[in-house]
Amino acid sequence: MTLPTPQARRGPVSSSERALAPDLARGFMLLLIALANTPWFLYGQDTNGVSAHPTDGSVLDRVVQFLLIAAVDARIYPLFAFLFGYGIVQLYRRQIEAGVTDRAARAILRRRHWWMIVFGVVHAALLWFGDIVGAYGLVGLVLVWIFFRRMDRTLIVWSAVLTGLLTLVTVLGLVSLPFMPADMTIDQGGFGDTAAINAEENYGASVLARLAMWPLIALGQGILGLVVPVMILLAFWASRRQILENPGQHLRLLRRTAVIGVSVGLLGGLPNALTHVGVIGIGEHQAWIFTLTQSLTGLFGGLGYVALFTLIAARVQSSPVARSVPVVAIQAVGKRSLSSYLGQSVLFAPLLSAWGIGLGANLNSAGVAAIACLGWVVLAVLAYVLERRGTRGPAEAVLRRLAYR
């Protein structure tokens, strides 16, 4: 028998080794990410300074805005963070089980995360300032370095500490709500100024603007916002127990997490959504407080979505539905989540940005949401074709070649 050398590396996971739940969750997640990004392409419209969503529109537009704020905004990137952290442990475990040394396996992780940062910079420069691939590569480098070898108790304690810190900031904001002077103003540009990056007609100037914005998003959303580190630490813990691979053994935990998480996420998004559509009459000098509740409850909402998608996968995995075209297509998108995520920008940025066709200046919330759904369907069809051919996504193929050398 030939023993693996210390530098031996097994290749990336094969289709037969993949669990349905993570891929199904990633596939759904890509649709929700597309919807979450839509407001940023509606440049030139008035916002209230605390949301990227326009402050006007038809009844249908207002319904779309309400649903996105309550159920999608600040709920999907935590879901993405959890699945990313879960995959880190999966990748490491496969290498160790194949006989790769700890040092060599961790080197693969480091290369992968460094190249994700490079992917993120290129993605931001060329197409989309809100890139999260680089942000997650950055936080992956930091958290793997600090926490990857820590005990389970350490992961839970630090996730609780960071959640507690975020909760404290939110509570202090809510307590201060009645005492805010009415003449305190917010920069009305706020989100509108950020969305205005897509209003730049000169492509070269738009590249510079996106590159200037990307580091702030990578640091703010990736690390300083605290939500992503919390989700990745919890994902480390969950992946060690292979909860998504074996949902039948963890049904009680998954059901409780789904019910509590989704409920807290939806209820926590209501104040922001109701304020946006004018049901809650609160001054703009106070409305920003609900961005804090949005972020905190989005953490629970992201966990709830993970558990819900896992329960759905557990139900369909052993049934004929798992082999149906829609399920296979959604799973195919999940298997190619990086390619699908970048593919959204390839479809939407030239179509909606001012340096391209510029449809974003003339659309409303409902219209751009419809385009997002249609784009996701197009990418699902392409992913399905690649799945039938047994071909990996192009971005995954490049990243894996760079990471595995």
Automatic annotation (TrEMBL):
It comes from the Bacteria. InterPro entries: Bact_Transport_Assoc, DUF418. The keyword Ribosomal protein does not apply. Pfam families: DUF418. The chain crosses the membrane at residues 24-43, 63-89, 109-126, 132-148, 155-175, 212-237, 258-282, 288-314, 341-361, 367-386. Residues 239-405 form the DUF418 domain. Keywords: Membrane, Transmembrane, Transmembrane helix. This is Uncharacterized membrane protein YeiB.
